[in-house]
TrEMBL record, chain A:
Gene3D superfamilies: 3.40.50.2300. The modification 4-aspartylphosphate is found at D74. The lineage of its organism: Eukaryota, Viridiplantae, Streptophyta, Embryophyta, Tracheophyta. Residues 10-141 form the Response regulatory domain. GO terms for biological process: cytokinin-activated signaling pathway; phosphorelay signal transduction system. This is Response regulatory domain-containing protein. It comes from Brassica carinata (Ethiopian mustard).
TrEMBL record, chain B:
It holds the Pfam family Hpt. Residues 40-143 form the HPt domain. This is Histidine-containing phosphotransfer protein. Signal peptide: none annotated. GO terms for molecular function: histidine phosphotransfer kinase activity; protein histidine kinase binding. The modification Phosphohistidine is found at H82. Its main location: cytoplasm. One of its GO terms (biological process) is phosphorelay signal transduction system. Histidine-containing phosphotransfer domain (HPt) contains an active histidine that mediates the phosphotransfer. It is found in: Cytoplasm, Cytosol; Nucleus.
Length: 215, 156
């Protein structure tokens, strides 16, 4: 039986406004997340363990400090904007799998599209509400699932006797439940593929939050 | 006594509702209250306090930028208004936020006189709200001291 453990998610929140940092921190805590807040994009990268080497175009990965399940960042920040931070995260081999969410007080459709195209999972209009934060869980679940799915080869090497039938119940994000009842043995690699298919179908849809286009 | 608590709770409820009705607060203040619980009983007061500190600081710096007619730093003023609009929006300070909208318009067309009027208005509004919320928090304190619970108030 493969079940996803409900251990606490750790979110990295980035915002130059002290008040907004306090708000987002409380919102996330109220949703049972562990939170780290920083006030600049550079500090966010530092926290992740990305530091700039002598080559300004390359970001070296030093030891990964902490496991982060989601980054939520303000768009408008002095120096490195939320968009810049998003790009740097998505360009990094080590961290591109971390879901990134952008927040902004301004409803600019072009800005929203740009962020989503760059790989942001969601774009929240400020002020962010509890209802918005609950939308984050599925994104964070994906990273945990992926990690569990990537468990080492011991599973692949295990041989199943032909007579054995498997009943596998998996708990997937967005309350999708997949019940697989087999008469024949199923190799664990197929199981992983099925999971990945479900996940990728969800990723292709861009998500919006309260978007109104101004004429 | 039970009736004392009930009376205070009714007073609190009526006062809070009146703040919404008079446009001082909007739905975001309700959202803010949702974030407060037994583990974080001072959350709203802390956030609101941060907001008023922001107001004071930003109004001062914008005032300095607008001081000399021949040398107004509209970029700085715009930045200040942006921050103020953001903060007021985050806490549900409706009137303050609305003044910020007008303020931004004056800034966009570099209307110094208009900016000064808006600055004065925003100063007035935040101070007014500060007094009102102080009264609200005092009522809350009285309820707690009398052994009662703060009522959940639903605003429609």
């Amino acid at each position: 039986m493969g079940m996803v453990r409900e251990s606490q998610f750790h979110v990295l929140a980035v915002d130059d406004s002290h008040l907004d940092r306090k708000m987002i921190e409380r919102l996330l805590q109220k949703s049972s997340c562990q939170v780290t807040t920083v006030d600049t994009g550079s500090k966010a990268l530092e926290f992740l363990g990305l530091r700039e080497s002598n080559d300004p175009n390359a970001l070296e990965t030093h030891q990964q400090e902490v496991e982060i399940n989601l980054i939520i960042t303000d768009y408008c920040m002095p120096g490195m904007t939320g968009y810049d931070l998003l790009k740097k995260v998505k360009e990094s081999a080590a961290f591109r799998s971390i879901p990134v969410v952008i927040m902004s007080s301004e409803n600019v459709p072009a800005r929203i599209s740009r962020c989503l195209e760059e790989g942001a999972e969601e774009f929240f209009l400020k002020p962010v509400k509890l209802a918005d934060v609950t939308k984050l869980k599925p994104h964070m679940m994906k990273t945990k699932l992926k990690k569990e799915g990537e468990k080492p080869s011991e599973e692949e090497n295990a041989t199943l006797k032909p007579e054995e039938s498997l009943v596998v119940e998996m708990i997937l994000p967005l309350n999708q439940e997949l019940e697989l009842e087999q008469k024949e043995p199923m190799l664990s690699s197929n199981k992983r593929k099925a999971m990945e298919e479900v996940i990728s179908a969800d990723r292709s849809r861009p998500k919006y939050n309260d978007i109104t286009t101004s004429a | 006594m039970n009736t004392v608590v009930a009376q205070l709770q009714r007073q609190f409820q009526d006062y809070l509702v009146s703040l919404y009705q008079q446009g001082f607060l909007d739905n975001q203040f309700t959202e803010l209250r949702k974030l407060q619980d037994e583990g974080t009983p001072d959350f709203v007061a802390e956030v609101v306090s941060l907001f008023f500190d922001d107001c004071s600081k930003l109004i001062n710096s914008m005032s300095r930028s607008l001081e000399r007619p021949e040398n107004v730093d509209f970029k700085q003023v715009d930045s200040g208004v942006h921050q103020l609009k953001g903060s007021s929006s985050s806490v549900g300070a409706r009137r303050v936020k609305n003044v910020c909208i007008s303020f931004k318009e004056c800034c966009d067309v570099q209307n110094r006189e208009g900016c000064l009027r808006c600055l004065q208005q925003v100063d007035y509004e935040y101070k007014m709200l500060k007094t009102k919320l102080q009264d609200l928090f005092n009522l809350e304190q009285q309820i707690v001291q009398a052994g009662g619970a703060i009522p959940q108030v639903n605003i429609n």
